[in-house]
Design goal:
The structure is a homodimer.
Chain A lengths: L4 H15 L4 H8 L3 H13 L3 E3 L7 E3 L2 H7 L2 H21 L2 E8 L2 E8 L14 E3 L4 H8 L3 H9 L13 H14 L2 E4 L6 E9 L5 E10 L8 H19 L2
Antiparallel strand pairs in A: 1-2, 3-4, 3-8, 4-5, 6-7, 7-8
Chain A binds a DNA duplex through helix 1, helix 2 and helix 3.
Chain lengths: 248, 248
DNA sequence: ACCATTGTGCCATCTGATGGACCGTTTGTC
DNA sequence: GACAAACGGTCCATCAGATGGCACAATGGT
């Protein structure tokens, strides 16, 4: 856990990403590094084209769009998206709700792709949003397809609630996972964002371990319990089709 | 242009992004750095959570999804997207074609948001794709709203064609830009991808300089010249509405 | 079994990162 | 208008850590 210059650089970069547009002092405070270090870091980041100070406000720093470009070239994940998007689109048309595609990164899920609904009342998450495994439909769906070891390890860690309705009791979650495995889809009512309900299902690779998850999300007023069976069956089917096409 | 460790780190990172999943030697050759340097770099990148070697193939390196997360928090650009998406959605519904939102990064445009069409025949670009200013409808639209100095500087540089139909002659481009300024929208037939036609219009900030561009894209067989006036007027109007809401 | 290519570890050398001190400027408070 | 507080930016002596050549190990193709 050495504190090399590269480590500092990424600390600074992630600080900028979080706080942009941000000034030197505030940033230095946030990432807990001396101002002079942060300053040199910013110049270096500018040199490599990852950060910039807008010409109108030369002391406020932002990220460039280069980060977006490197995510664009993600080989394996690209193919996942290419396969998933058409299926997601059909799901979007038949449900008219927001469809999400997420993939794991560490012990969280990251929002890879989102197809919005035409409704003005929307469940809106930015691409790249990080989503906990225990407080989302996609997370529970994903977790339900993991092997017991990984589940145990995850449920051993601290499970911070995102809303008052988030599941945080390991035993409750295990019960829920069993249900999900039986019927093939998960449901989460207001556990990630209050007032938003989602239904999810896992996408598997050729070995059977989960590589992604899909979900349908919308305001709880529209996504009523009476529609769960129908919508759940639809996500499960969509996820299964993505799984199937992934093997080709 | 010093060659600090941070510069190497980003060289390596971008190399990984481009070639992933990639081995050490190939990567070292690509980024033109000694193998030992590249390896230490990879370990550091792993430490900060930006690169990883898959457990199944521990010698092949890929990027994590962290890059996606930092793009998610893009403050100013987020608000641009928030404003643009609803307008884009209406445009999508009324044209049933693919809608793109791009923003400048350096001398290129980057695809920020995409709303797909229901058509199976689609113009598909991944988010984060880099688009040259002279060979796209969005690029020409953007360029048409730049000040003369910037246009001159850009047209002085090398204009590499993307397809045989790309515009590369500075004088032809200047003529085109004049047309675009008159009627308010640009058109590009097969200049970015063969068989794909697009119409674009610029989004301006409060000072009148361009900050983004919107476009309608689809197969040239559907986006026929006879529809240009209608579709062009629609993008222009959409861009104008985004411009307007951006001032609020 | 052989060779080509790849991944990994080591270490003497010296580059370049560090961070405290300092200065000029801006912001906002009385 | 004057003062204080916070800001962005620069400098430089010190030393941590980056460098890259080399040698060894592991892989896989023929």
């Amino acid at each position: 856990m050495a504190t090399t210059s590269v480590v500092s650089a990424f600390r600074v970069l992630e600080g900028v990403a979080r706080l942009q547009p941000v000034g030197l002092s505030e940033l230095a405070r946030e990432v807990e590094l001396p101002k002079s270090t942060v300053q040199r870091c910013l110049l270096t980041l500018q040199e490599v084209g990852w950060a910039e100070s807008s010409s109108s406000a030369p002391t406020r720093w932002s990220m460039t769009l280069r980060a977006l470009s490197v995510t664009g070239g993600m080989g394996a994940r690209e193919s996942l998206r290419d396969v998933a998007v058409p299926v997601m689109h059909e799901l979007q048309l038949s449900t008219t709700e927001t469809i999400h595609l997420v993939a794991p990164d560490g012990d969280e899920l990251v929002l890879l792709e989102r197809l919005d609904t035409a409704h003005s009342l929307r469940a809106f998450l930015p691409l790249g949003e990080r989503i906990p495994l225990h407080a989302s439909a996609t997370g529970l769906a994903f977790l339900s397809a993991c092997d017991a070891g990984r589940i145990d390890r995850y449920l051993d860690g601290p499970l911070v609630p995102r809303t008052p309705d988030s599941l945080t009791d390991p035993d409750r979650i295990r019960d829920e996972l069993a249900h999900i495995r039986e019927r093939g889809w998960s449901v989460n009512v207001g556990g990630l964002s209050s007032g938003i309900s989602s239904l999810g299902a896992p996408v598997l690779d050729h070995t059977g371990s989960p590589v992604a998850a899909v979900s349908i999300s919308g305001p709880s007023s529209r996504i009523e319990p009476s529609r769960f069976d129908d919508l759940g069956a639809q996500v499960a089917q969509a996820a299964a089709r993505i799984t199937q096409r992934l093997r080709a």
